[in-house]
Amino acid sequence: MILLELFWSFLQIGLFSIGGGYAAIPLIQSQAVETHAWLSAEQFLDLATIAEMTPGPIGINAATFVGMRISGLPGALMASLGFVFPSLVIVSALSVCYMRYREMPLLKSVLSSLRPAVVALIAAAGLNMLLQVAFGGRDNFAMENIRWAGAALFAGAFFLLRKYKWNPIQTIALCGAAGLVLGLFGIF
User: Fold this and answer.
1) Is the C-alpha dihedral spanning 175, 48, 78, 87 positive or negative?
2) Which pLDDT score is estimated for 48?
3) 152 in any annotated domain
4) What does the alpha-carbon distance between residue 10 and residue 87 come to, in Å, rounded to a whole number?
5) What is the model's pTM?
6) What is the rounded distance in angstroms from the CA atom of residue 157 to the CA atom of residue 26?
7) Cβ neighbour number for residue 66 with a 10 Å cutoff
8) End-to-end CA distance of the chain, in Å?
């Protein structure tokens, strides 16, 4: 039964995560943390970090991680299949339609109207991760609950990425090393 639940949950996520993997993160969080309680908020943050660091699309990595955590290899396969199945069907159908109607003004306006929704989903995922790292979650949003080490790492990484256009992989590696050192000293 759990395999069908994994497949169905990630089928829904795959169906409604328009905009790619980052847009899927809030949907995965909703299903895995809030609806089914398969993961805690802390575990979800770890999932998002691992899914970002590992090669491949973040959405499929996250689906595989959740499935593996819940039901081993069969769970990983069912969650991954559920996540990619809608994309396979939709992209196949859309490619035929797009090639036939790509110059149609209505199609152009529909595609351009989806962009703000995608940006909002990505921003929501980023904000949720920031609140988890800096405050321990959305419910702890107060100055006395701030986790200074996490907030400093976030600010430093953001600064390096935006100001100096650092390579994201190097930035992730640097933050991981800093988190390891801070963790060894009991700061993080």
Assistant:
1) negative
2) 86
3) no
4) 12
5) 0.58
6) 22
7) 30
8) 38
SS3 for 186? coil
Q: What pLDDT is stored for residue 78 in this prediction?
A: 97
Residue 135 domain-assigned (yes or no): no
Question: How many domains are contained in the chain?
Answer: 1
Contacts of 33 (CB under 8 A, 6+ apart): 39, 40, 41, 44
User: Crossing angle, helix 21-29 and helix 2-16, to 10 degrees?
Assistant: 130
Q: Which residues of the chain have pLDDT under 70?
A: none
Domain of 31 in residue numbering reads as 2-114
Rounded Cα gap, residues 124 and 130, in angstroms: 10
pLDDT for the residue 74 = 97
String of DSSP letters for 58-103: HHHHHHHHHHHHHHHHHHHHHHHHHHHHHHHHHHHHHHHHHHHHTT
Place of tokens 């396969």: 77
What's the rounded Cα separation, in Å, for the pair 163 and 145?
Answer: 28
CA dist 176 and 172 (Å) reads 6
In a domain? residue 66: yes
Distance CA 75, CA 73 (A): 5
Closest C-alpha among 25, 14, 15 to residue 121: 25
Residue 121 placed within a domain: no
CB atoms within 10 A of CB 188: 17
Q: Enter the tokens of residue 107.
A: 């199609």
Radius of gyration of the chain (CA): 19
